[in-house]
Amino acid sequence: MKILVSNDDGYRAEGITRLRAALAPLGEVTVVAPDRNRSGAGNSLTLDVPLRVFEAEPGLHYVAGTPTDCVHLAISGAFAFEFDMVASGINDGANLGDDVLYSGTVAAAIEGRFLGLPTVAVSLCTSPGSARHFDAAARVAHTLVSAVLQRSLDPALILNVNVPDRPYEELAGYASTRLGFRHRSDAVVAARDPRGNPVYWIGPAGEGADAGAGTDFHAVANGFVSVTPLSIDLTRHVVLPTLARWLEAL
Ligand code: MN
What is the pLDDT averaged over residues 179-208? Predict the structure, then answer.
């Protein structure tokens, strides 16, 4: 079994080091990850410059590109062999609700969908000053990836996994969830560069707005490992009949 591991925090991040170690007993693990933190890169490809794959050590590769670049290169010809699945993470921070649209961690898993096997994105729900139980998230990743490899689920499945930041023994269990939705993010933080020109920092994401029972937010808040099946189809199917009638009136 050949497992591709990537992330968006960079190839030297603690989370990917833990994930690589946790999955090593399950197969041959190859890491291909960005050379630096590319959190928030989403599903982006680098098309204006060529990309190089550097080997930091056997099995550990980095690319001056996005998480999507890394997985795309890895499964589309940079290696002489085929991968069986992709695992991404362990992200330093939650990827809940609409985070998945921006997340490079989730994007890396999504890029692996062409493999025809479920792919898994794992995030640890850290917050500033929290304990950062990467060891717990690594055990969760091992358990889930092992299960995915042994018991075939929907082959097109992308699992978005969020682990509460607490010791493994204190996790409440696994919960299947749907994505919630966040409140609008905080305003951008304005500053001035040394020449007096305005610059802006993107502010933090909003709190959970749609965060009731059944959502990923709710599961994590109650100590459960949240497991959300994602699909790529962004079509708002319920609006299709209304839209058809609306278009007829044009
Ligand atoms: Mn990240």
Answer: 91
Angle (nearest 5°) at CA 97 between 67 and 68: 10
pLDDT average, residue stretch 5-16: 98
pLDDT at 152 > cutoff 80? no
Answering whether pTM is above 0.85, one says: yes
Tell how far the Cα of 67 is from the centroid of ligand 1, in angstroms: 10
**Contact by Cβ (8 Å): 84, 148:** no
Measured in Å, residue 43 CA sits from the centre of ligand 1 at 13
Distance CA 63, CA 61 (A): 7
Residue 125 identity: C
Q: Are 84 and 117 in contact (CB under 8 A)?
A: yes
Percentage of the chain modeled with pLDDT above 90: 86
2-182+208-248 fold: Stationary-phase Survival Protein Sure Homolog; Chain: A, (3.40.1210)
**Ligand 1 centroid, distance to 243 Cα (angstroms):** 37
